[in-house]
Amino acid sequence: MELSTILQPECTTCATPGSKKKVLELISDIAAVQYPTLSSQEIFESLLAREKMGSTGIGNGIAIPHGRLTNIERPVAVLVKCEDPIAFDAIDKQPVDILFALLVPSEQCEQHLATLSLMAEKLNDKAVVKQLRKTSNESELYQVITQ
């Protein structure tokens, strides 16, 4: 699967959210535009429920917050590059500046795991991460992650 099938350009942003809660709220607001039948609060609660099980901060300044929702038909991704890294309780205790969030239909467990694996693989590539950090706008950010 290509990331461009789940990540739309309008779901890619450069921001300064300031905290873990604020960035999860930002992700929720962006995703809610893709699913007008869902409230940003429903999305936020799904992401927060997953974070309560353990941080999705995978290290090296990267987090992959994700959640399952019953009222969606297709996966949606949101990419956020934080101008200033934020504390995210990552496994390496380092702040996070790149977040790739994934929301999937609750019944698509296998696709969810495959998509998370694809994102983790892409974000494990040091060259890609370096390019993401060098981007200065949403368009560049989208191009780097989807190429």
From TrEMBL:
Keywords: Cytoplasm, Kinase, Transferase
All residue ranges annotated as the PTS EIIA type-2 domain in the record: 1-147
Positions in coiled-coil regions: none
One Pfam family matching this protein: PTS_EIIA_2
Protein localization: Cytoplasm
Principal location: cytoplasm
A biological process from GO: phosphoenolpyruvate-dependent sugar phosphotransferase system
GO cellular component: cytoplasm
Membrane-spanning intervals of the chain: none
Superkingdom: Bacteria
InterPro entries linked to this entry: PTrfase/Anion_transptr (IPR016152), PTS_EIIA_type-2_dom (IPR002178), PTS_Nitro_regul (IPR006320), PTS_SugarTrans_NitroReg (IPR051541)
UniProt GO MF annotations: kinase activity; protein kinase activator activity; protein-N(PI)-phosphohistidine-sugar phosphotransferase activity
Function: Seems to have a role in regulating nitrogen assimilation.
Protein name, as recorded: Nitrogen regulatory protein
Organism: Shewanella pealeana (strain ATCC 700345 / ANG-SQ1)
